[in-house]
Amino acid sequence: TGFDSDNSSGDFSEANHKVPEMLDLDPHQSSRTGKHNGETEIQENGIKRHRTSLPAPMFSRSDFSVWSILKKCIGLELSKITMPIVFNEPLSFLQRITEYMEHIYLINKACSHADPLERMQAVAAFAVSAVASQWERTGKPFNPLLGETYELTREDLGFRFISEQVSHHPPISAFYSEGLNKDFVFHGSIYPKLKFWGKSIEAEPRGTITLELLKHNEAYTWTNPTCCVHNVIIGKLWLEQYGVVEIVNHSTGDKCVLNFKPCGLFGKELHRVEGYIQDKHRKKLCVIYGKWTECLWCTDPTTYETYKKSEKRGGEQKKKSVSEEDIKSENDEADDMPEVQDTVQFIPGSKLLWRINCRPPNSSQMYNFTSFAVSLNELEKGMEAILAPTDCRLRPDIRNMENGNMDVASREKERLEEKQRAARKERAKDEVEWHTRWFHQGTNPYTGTPDWLYSGGYFDRNFSDCPDIY
Predict the structure, then answer these.
(1) Can you give the CATH number for the domain in which 135 is found?
(2) What are the DSSP calls for 141-193, one per residue?
């Protein structure tokens, strides 16, 4: 895939072995990449090597109190609250969205399957993998400025991606990605509604995500689960995803229903995902199970039900042996931070759909970034000449935080926010309406709901009328 430590452990290494074969990229693309990036390091196979660490280690948050800021915000929408930079991670939310593409080999796998059930299985795995990078990522991405953009072209992975902050209040981020082989289109708009509930911060995702497999003339839509960060006042921060995600194939009528389970009283359901795929007649075709932090499997419904019944019979004896003291002890731990060390219980005959990539060994000193995330804000030599002036890589507060200059980053963050407020007041004074550059409001053609659609033209690189936001 072009990076050293981005393959999953064990025997499963789809990302390493399958992607080049499926993409079938023009061999001349590698040489174009090398020429375009000048002095960028090139591997022997001709693929550009991306950086594997950040310029400076993560800044310690231990001396800062979240409570001093959030105690006045209980039950309120957090998008309007200014947070100190120490609680951020050095990425914009637009770059965080781009992490959906980390497991793009699952889209390539879906494109390659002739069987619609196997395509849905791969799409379901992709939807789960899209939230996997959030595991242990308790830092807050920077709120994008109105008009901010981010582009990413990865010839080694076979896609290009563009996103834009199309609204500030409410904050809405629109994105569009396409396969370099013209095999898929992936797009959507996201409006994360953040609320503080005393001990936790909840991010409820709003907006539709759409994946089109062009070869099969199929379109899938879904919405991400709710994300919640616990222990924001005291204790160790931990994160969970919960809620029901429905993936609909608008061509066949098939549907995948995934239940991201809340951790529960004793934390035994933490990170677990269970669901099924059904056809348009509501007949269950397969069952999917696993953890969004680890892996995802599928098996046929009969095998799954038989296993669950036998597991339930075997669990009765275990329940009887648990004392009240044990329950109290477990409950106390669950209030602090549930720790479930066991891996997914394998059901014989199951097929592995996806496994999370190994993180770099220094990930804990880099905001728990994946190898893919580490590369997102990399500013290579010559890039500034071709990037839009609104690109996240050029944003000074994020750049300074990444380099460890926290005081400068904090001042730059305040300056940019004040500049944005001044520009908004000036537009209101002159009665000038803000116009987005690369996306426009419309209707999702498959769900009929409001959506932001890509207007096209970004990669023609005519940036003459881009706003001055930095």
Answers:
(1) 2.40.160.120
(2) EEPPPTT-EEEEEETTTTEEEEEEEEETTTTEEEEEEEETTS-EEEEEEE--E
Instruction: Tell me the CA distances in angstroms from 26 to 15, 39, 159, 183, 212, one per residue in order.
Output: 19, 22, 13, 15, 23
Strand partners, 175: 163, 188
The dihedrals phi and psi of 92, each to the nearest 5 degrees, come to -80, 155
Tokens for 44?
């022997």
Residue in 175, 150, 140, 97 with CA at minimum distance from that of residue 394: 150
11-28: average pLDDT: 35
d(CA 262, CA 88): 25
Choice among 5-9, 216-220, 245-249, 310-314 with the minimum mean pLDDT: 5-9
Residues 395-422: pLDDT tens digits? 999 999 999 999 999 999 999 999 999 9
Q: Is residue 24 part of a domain?
A: no
**Mean model confidence pLDDT for the chain:** 82
Distance, in Å, from the CA atom of 96 to the CA atom of 438, rounded to the nearest integer, reads 19
pLDDT band at 173 (very low <50, low <70, confident <90, very high): very high
Q: What is the largest CA-CA distance in the chain?
A: 74
Query: Other CB atoms closer than 10 Å to residue 222's CB: what's the count?
Result: 22
CB of 296 within 8 A of CB of 288?
yes
Q: Residue 266 falls within a domain, yes or no? A: yes
Number of domains in the chain: 1
DSSP 236-291: --EEEEEEEEEEEETTT--EEEEEE----TTSTTTTEEEEEEE-TT--EEEEEEEE
Token pair in block for residue 253: 């009528």
Compute φ and ψ for 442, nearest 5 degrees.
-160, -155
Domain of residue 222, residue span: 66-310+339-357+368-460
Distance CA 121, CA 117 (A): 6
Using only C-alpha atoms, what is the Rg of the chain? Answer: 23
Cβ distance 104 to 224 under 8 Å?
no
Structural domain includes residue 10:
no
Q: Is the peptide bond before 170 cis (omega within 30 degrees of 0)?
A: yes
> Beta strand pairing status for 209-213 and 218-222?
antiparallel
**pLDDT tens, residue by residue, 246-291:** 999 999 999 999 999 988 777 778 889 999 999 999 999 999 999 9
Using CA atoms, how far apart are residues 302 and 282, in angstroms rounded to an integer?
Answer: 16
Cα separation, 438 vs 450, in Å, equals: 17
Look at residue 175 and tell me if it is in a domain.
yes
